[in-house]
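TASK: fixed-backbone design
INPUT:
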């Protein structure tokens, strides 16, 4: 048992160490615009635009559940318009970024790891070097930039839909009026709420794409190795999202409260 735990921990630390090295190398390769530029729009569409449906679907049900949960918790204790406050704060600052990030960790992280893992085990990455291309600039940089830029777009759409779903649930299921819901939503609203959620989502995009690329490029062993790299990418990305969520809360929220 201890041997298995130690092996898992060692492999995780190796992956995070290699991710740090790959991030530094990607920073240097980002100057090669001619190599990664043509691939950026394709990756932005694959990672961001194609991920919008899942982000919107998650936000839709999250907004409804939050409105019902708030109404249940506040019954007879506080004014009902605070349902809008709870929905606005939790969707924008926490649930939209984190739940969407975790969903995209499965979709984007696994996709990147499987794609690059297949290219690695079939020696296509080596072929790129033979042809004079920088594999990091060609494969890694456009994916990381697309993740950093498009994750906030998906999360922004999820924020809007989640708030709208909470409003619709409040009107249809809780017999609230639009003015009551908007009163609560505006009561403690601050532009910081939106900035906080979007900055977090950008960091999630960086972590998910970087770990997906790292595990894909270190894949070996044929189809089984590719599957293993995709699984590791999803698990590591999910853990990293939770770590970054706590990091931003301590660094930004705690500092702002102080």
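OUTPUT:
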């Amino acid at each position: 048992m201890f041997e298995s735990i130690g092996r898992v921990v060692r492999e995780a630390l190796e992956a995070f160490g290699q991710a740090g090295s790959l991030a530094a190398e990607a920073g240097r390769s980002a100057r090669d615009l001619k190599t990664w530029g043509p691939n950026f729009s394709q990756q932005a569409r694959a990672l961001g635009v194609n991920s919008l449906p899942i982000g919107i679907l998650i936000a839709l049900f999250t907004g409804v559940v939050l409105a019902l949960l708030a109404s249940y918790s506040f019954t007879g204790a506080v004014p009902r318009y605070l349902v809008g406050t709870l929905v606005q704060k939790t969707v924008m600052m926490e649930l939209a970024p984190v739940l969407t990030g975790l969903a995209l960790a499965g979709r984007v992280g696994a996709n990147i790891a499987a794609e690059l893992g297949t290219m690695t085990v079939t020696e296509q990455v080596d072929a790129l070097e033979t042809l004079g291309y920088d594999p990091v600039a060609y494969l890694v940089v456009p994916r990381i930039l697309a993740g950093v830029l498009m994750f906030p777009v998906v999360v922004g759409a999820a924020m809007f839909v989640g708030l709208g779903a909470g409003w619709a649930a409040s009107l249809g299921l809780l017999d609230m009026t639009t003015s009551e819901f908007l009163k609560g939503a505006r009561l403690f609203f601050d532009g910081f709420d939106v900035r906080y959620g979007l900055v977090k989502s950008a960091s999630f995009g960086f972590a998910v794409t970087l770990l997906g690329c790292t595990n894909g490029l270190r894949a070996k062993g044929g189809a089984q190795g590719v599957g293993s790299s995709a699984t590791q990418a999803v698990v590591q990305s999910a853990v990293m999202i939770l770590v970054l969520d706590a990091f931003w809360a301590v660094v930004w929220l705690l500092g702002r409260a102080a």
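COMMENT: The chain has one domain: 2-257.
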